[in-house]
Every structure is written in C-alpha cells, then in structure tokens.
C-alpha cells in the first residue's frame, strides 16, 4: 500500500492522545507551519469563538501555508468539513492517534491534574479549574469528555477508513514513535 502524501496533515484523536505533541514534532520534521484548533475555537472564559471568525482564521492559515501544514484537534462539528481530506484545500491525510482508552485516560488525568494544580494558562487566558473535575457533564469535565468521546472518535474514524478517506492509524505510542522515526529517516535520505 502506498502511503498518502504528507504535505497537509490533520491530526485527530481523543483528548489526551497526544495530538498537540505529535503535531509539534511532525511540523518540525516536515518543515511546515502548525495550527492548534483549540486556540482557534476556544475564546476567553471557555467560550466558543464566533464560528465565522474561527473559519476565517483556519482558511487564512491554509492560504498562508500553501506548501504544507499540520493541524491538530478534532472539532468536527465546528469545522463543518473545512480541511477534511478530499475537500478543496483540505488535508492530504488524517493521522489518527487511536490509543487504548486506558492510555488516554492515564494521560488526560495526569495532564488535567498538572494543569489544574499549576494553573497553566492554555488558550486566551483559559485555565483548567479544579472545580470542573467533579462536574458530571462531559462538556465541562475533560476527563469525562475523554472517556465518553473515545468510542465516538473511534467509530467516526473507522467510518472514514471504510469510506476510503486517507488515514494513517497509529495504535499506541510505539507505533507513533516508529512512524515519526521512519519519517525522519525518509526526510534525511532525500535531503542534499
């Protein structure tokens, strides 16, 4: 099987799967710009940015980087197909971080605790709040969000694969590391 081209890449996966970390590494390897969708769609006070404004930012980013880009984050309902493979100006491929649920939960709990205790600033002054750890609604509790969305993300991505959408599926950190290593090797072998 031929690997899809890696010029415009969308990295998707459940919260805590390592999308942002992989995106930073991949953008460096490919020598392209990176866009973190959380920074686009979230606004101050954990409110959603105006959808037209967010779409304009995404379109501008893609237009400013015609030679390639890496975009991390799901935001399927808010993107409304923007940047999907097969759409004009869309990604060449999805890279799907399909880690086991236990791995994702361990990561998201650790990350949430660290962010909450240290009060790390995220996007637009937002911080994960300790009081949100006990909220029942997944939309207000990132740990519950990761738990409930793990099967939803898997179902959506398996359907995309069945539909013939180009997807690189990485099942676990070893596969991620091996894939990145092979990309680095390929890049080094073609550099003058």
Automatic annotation (TrEMBL):
SUPFAM superfamilies: P-loop containing nucleoside triphosphate hydrolases (SSF52540). One of its GO terms (molecular function) is kinase activity. Keywords: Kinase, Transferase. InterPro entries: Cytidylate_Kinase-2 (IPR052922), P-loop_NTPase (IPR027417). It comes from the Bacteria. This is Adenylate kinase. It comes from Microbacterium saccharophilum.
């Amino acid at each position: 099987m031929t690997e899809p081209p890696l010029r415009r890449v969308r990295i998707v996966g459940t919260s805590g799967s390592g999308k942002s970390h992989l995106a930073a590494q991949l953008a460096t390897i490919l020598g392209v710009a990176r866009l973190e969708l959380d920074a686009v769609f979230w606004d101050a006070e954990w409110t959603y940015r105006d959808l037209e404004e967010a779409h304009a930012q995404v379109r501008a980013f893609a237009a400013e980087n015609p030679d390639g880009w890496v975009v991390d984050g799901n935001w399927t309902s808010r993107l409304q197909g923007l940047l999907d493979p097969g759409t004009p100006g869309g990604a060449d491929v999805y890279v799907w971080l399909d880690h086991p649920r236990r791995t994702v939960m361990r990561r998201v709990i650790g990350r949430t605790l660290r962010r909450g205790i240290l009060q790390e600033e995220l996007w637009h002054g937002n911080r994960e709040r300790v009081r949100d750890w006990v909220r029942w609604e997944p939309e207000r509790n990132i740990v519950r969000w990761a738990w409930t969305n793990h099967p939803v993300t898997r179902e959506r991505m398996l359907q995309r694969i069945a539909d013939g959408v180009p997807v690189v599926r990485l099942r676990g950190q070893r596969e991620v590391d091996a894939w990145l290593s092979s990309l680095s090797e390929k890049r080094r072998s073609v550099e003058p």
